[in-house]
Amino acid sequence: MPTLLSLPDDISIKSALGESVLEAARRADVPIACACGGKAKCSTCRIWILDGADGCPERTALERTLVERLGLGNNVRLACQLRPASDITFRRLVLDETDLRMTSQLLPHRSTSAGELKSVVIFFSDVAGFTHFSETLTPYDVMYLLNRYFTQVAEVIELNNGYIDKFVGDGLMAIFGVNGQDDAPVRAVNAALQTLATVDRLKPFFASMYGIDFDIRVGLHLGEAVIGSVGSPGNERLTAIGDAVNVASRVETANKEAGTRLLISETLYERVKDEVEISDFIRVRLRGTSDRITLYEIRKLKVEAERRLNEKGARETMQLGSKTWHRTVATGELKDGDYKVIEFQALYVVILRRGGRVHAFNNACPHLKLPFFESTSRTNGHARQASTVDEDGTLVCRWHHSGFDLDTGEIVKWCEALNEDGTSAGMEVLGDISKNRAPLRLIPCREEDGYIWVGLD
Fold this sequence. Notes:
Distance between the termini: 49 Å
Oligomer: single chain
Strand content: 25-35%
Number of helices: 9
Shape: flat
Structural class: alpha+beta
Number of strands: 24
Radius of gyration: 29 Å
Helix content: 10-25%
Largest sheet: 8 strands, mixed
């Protein structure tokens, strides 16, 4: 078994024949960075062979390609590609303080993603004529307008399993297929069409409020990109990097010259052509490229694809706003004044209707974590002690009469059923139990598709 000596760590590693330096180093917890996951797509795992270079095998084709492009010296090898057959001594080339912090991000126990090459759909959109109306409206109105638009579009993208990468001015970038979903291409097209429909619904409002003709342009491209976390430690954000991002941005820009609203690249069209209907196609030379390519203007999804992707009522959960929304009771089942206790893995949630509004909250009083309500609804005919809701919307706990605002969760009154010294009548031996002041934990809820949904982290 070859012996690998890593410097400056001064760690000796016994390597199995056929094992790469990167594999052996990781097994020994030697922190070698590797942004591409060992596919010779980056050079972050490069090492300098100090001794034993003559006995090292020839470079693989993948290593040769990258080394020639970067002009690396003969003694510099990629740890992910080098599989020593004899002893070597090597020095890691990721050494300074910044590199070491980055290396710590790349270790398996961290939640950040070091980078992985994936086939994804990149979604770009921007607002048509944004410069003009941003100069005519107040900054406050511009921010309000964009936030109203972005909020609704973000819901559309997340409902189609897309990931919002960034908002830049009036532009939005999203990624579909981050988790390798097979239907990411058609989901991305569906999201683009629904985004345009959302904008069409917003147009009359913006026209009446501001006298502007609000519209957007969308471009989609399917291609390979490195998906990983970028940013300083503690401020990382998942993003996509690579030529696919540039192409998608240029496809979106091509809408302006073509007079279209939604264009997709040829590579994406080949994946979804059996599920979409096109209005037209154009041959263009994208900015920054010399070759002409074909872009397709999408009109709508075919009926079967539309039904499959947008069928409602069968979903038990959905992702929206960074939460998992769970379908609970049918809207008609919860009359005014009724409540229902729903069990989830981490907590019990009370869903309560009052005055035409639905409220949801953790079924545990912040005081002593005792349940506000029993698991069976009070509408089942059994007389059972329960917490109450005052006319002003205050939830009063049945145990020690603490009160909480159902709209904000704030404490309205605290432990009024206890003695002045905080003890419980007849159980003074327990001492002061009036501590643990904390607001009510509210749970986001919404009514949609005939059901009440609650959103959990």
